[in-house]
Structures are given as C-alpha cells and as structure tokens.
Amino acid sequence: GTHLGGGICEMIGRMDYAYRLQDEAYFLGSYEPMLIKHPPSHYLKMMYLESTCYHPPAARCAFETVGPDHFIFGTDSPPLMVLKKEGVELIKKLGLSAGDERKVYYENAKKLLKI
C-alpha cells in the first residue's frame, strides 16, 4: 500500500475491535456476518506498506503495524528529486537497526519482486 497504506494503520485497532464484537453487536440490527476467519490486522500484516510520508510518528505507526519484513522505502520522487532526500531522512529518524534499514531500503523489495 502506498503512502503508509492510506491511514489504515491508524484504524486497524478499531477494525479488530469491531471484529471481536460481531457476536455481541446484535442490538445494532441485522447485518451480514464477517466473512473473514481472522481479525483484519492479521491480513494487514500480509501487505507491504511503503514509507512515503513526511511525519515520522505516522511512519513509525505503519512500521510497527506491519513489521520490518513488510515495510518498504518509497518517495514521491520523481518528479521532485528533493523528495528522495526527505524519504531517506524519514527512515533515519525512525532509528531502525542496520538490519531493519536493509530490509526497508532493498531486501523487502527484492523479496516482493522475486529478484
């Protein structure tokens, strides 16, 4: 998912909560039962999210939600090459281990693209 998954990491807790409440929410009226076997966060952790944003706390939320094996470096560059520098600075501000940085910068992309 581009741009940290579009804000889903901020909402996943609420989605998991709704999943847990489905048997108790009868008072809300009838609605279709969920057709998934696991909480939504289980499926989100299967996605790859890329790091394009300019707010380290938001990037940290996405990184912690999907984990170091599913977070990929990304920028809005081109068209503006200066954005690449901002993207690198964002990753530095996260204070990741050297191993996690390697995953974010290239190992995860290689795995995803099978190269």
What does this structure look like?
- By secondary structure, the chain is mainly alpha-helical.
- The chain has one domain: Alpha-Beta Barrel (TIM Barrel), CATH 3.20.20.140.
- The protein contains five helices and two strands.
- Strands 1-2 form a two-stranded parallel sheet.
- Helix 3 crosses helix 4 (82-94).
- The longest helix has 16 residues, at 98-113.
- The two termini are 20 Å apart.
- Radius of gyration equals 17 Å
Q: What does the overall shape look like?
A: elongated
Largest sheet: 2 strands, parallel
The name of the CATH topology is TIM Barrel
Secondary-structure-derived class: mainly alpha
User: Strands of the biggest beta sheet: in what spatial order?
Assistant: 1-2
| Total E-strand runs | 2
Distance between the termini: 20 Å
- Low-confidence spans: none
Count of discrete domains = 1
The CATH superfamily title: Metal-dependent hydrolases
Helix-strand pattern, N to C?
HHEHEHH
- The oligomerization state is single chain
What is the mean predicted local confidence, pLDDT? 91
**How many distinct helices?**
5
In the CATH hierarchy, the architecture is Alpha-Beta Barrel
Percentage of residues in helical conformation: 40-55%
Strand content: under 5%
Task: Give the C-level CATH assignment.
Answer: Alpha Beta
